[in-house]
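Subject: for your reference before the review

Hello V.,

The reviewers asked for a structural picture of the protein, and I figured it would be easier to keep everything in one thread rather than splitting it across files. Below is the amino acid sequence we used in the manuscript, unchanged from the supplementary table.
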Amino acid sequence: MSVHDAWALACRLFVGGTPVFREVLSAREIAAIKTLGKAVKPTTIDQRFALCPYCQLQRGQIWADGKGGRVCHCPDCGPVTVGLDDVAAFALDEDWFKLKLRMALEINSHDGIDTLGVGVWHLGGARRSPVLLARNLMLLWREPAIFDRVRVQGAPIRVIAPRPKETRGAPFSTGIEWLALEERFTFYGGGIAYIQPGRNQEQALATDPASLVYGPFSADFRWVTLPEWQHGPIRCTDGQASVFKSLWSFGAEPMSAERIMQRAGLDSDKPNDLFKIKARDKDKPENQGPLFAYRTLVKTHKRQGLYWMPCAASRELSPA
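And here is what came back from the structure prediction:
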């Protein structure tokens, strides 16, 4: 089972927008469900009908068999016993999907996700560029006025949408960049990674910015990976990364807030100031993650005003 298979299944579920029976999935797709983890979730499809467990070609109505079981009345096969696996179904967790796409493009967490129409969402702005997500390009071709609702002067619009079979070349005019869902993103490490233009999936994964370099941290300290955190690698702001880098440089030695913040190049009084969450953002995992990492990794002696990070005891980064 490859990452490619897992991402292909996630894209297929997004395009369809509806749950699928487990029985219609291939063996590779069933294996991919385990790789996708929280990206997919068990769900319920209308229990009155099911795909025939025998031929898997026709749908039939489900009836009780009078013995505590159920049978599917297939138009071709007749009554066929139905088991629990025959009606099991899965769906893409689209809230998870949108959140991870936002993180992949480093969209400002303060921007909300707005529904612009059936199957079209505004994910926020990535470096001022509005980002749209659509189930298919046709939805945007039919309603081009959607672009006017998000357009920002002097910034291009970025559209994330699957690649339709009939599309060749650029589907939009100048000022609108199309990011083909299957090609410009991939599933990685419990989240979604953005593939830069000119790179393929293998190259993107090999140079993943969240790769561990210093203990649980990436090379630039902007990513933290903790097994206790179930939402994948945690992305930090520049300020938060500077705090972690400063703490790491002291090699687990308790240090005053003043020295830590001075080395981090920040004006705040205490390290935890950079990890406070506004009330409106408390329910967002992307905001909770850095605070969770801080509370997990950083120890404090409040009376003496000292801070240290035990995981930095065998640091490989020389003090700045």
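For the response letter, the relevant points are probably these. DSSP finds eleven helices and 19 strands in the chain. The first helix runs from residue 3 to 16.

Happy to draft the paragraph if you're swamped.

O.
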